[in-house]
Amino acid sequence: MTHLNSELIDRFYLAILALKTPEECAVFFEGLRTVTEIQNMAQRPEVAQLPADGRNYQEITNGAGVSAATISRVNRCLRYGSGGYRLALARLGREKR
Length: 97
Description:
Blueprint: H1 7-18, H2 22-32, H3 35-52, H4 57-64, H5 68-80, H6 84-91
Helix pairs in contact: 3-5
C-alpha cells in the first residue's frame, strides 16, 4: 500500500481514512500528537500552497510565520516527493493548475 512497506503503517493510514469528520480527526490526532505538533503539521499544506500562489521564501516566512527550514522541507517534498501535497491540495480544490 505505501512505499514504507509496513503493515503497521498501512493500518495506521486506514485508521485515518476511517475518520469521517474534522471533529473525529481532532480527537484521534490529539491522542497522537501535542497541540504544537498538530499546529506544525497543519502549517505544511498551507506552506505548500504558497509557492503555487507565486510567493517567495521571504514572503512565506513573513506571511505564514514559519521558519525557512519548514519552507525548505515542504519545497523539497514538492519538488522531489511523491506528490502528496499536490494530491491533497487538488482534492481540496486549492491548487492552481
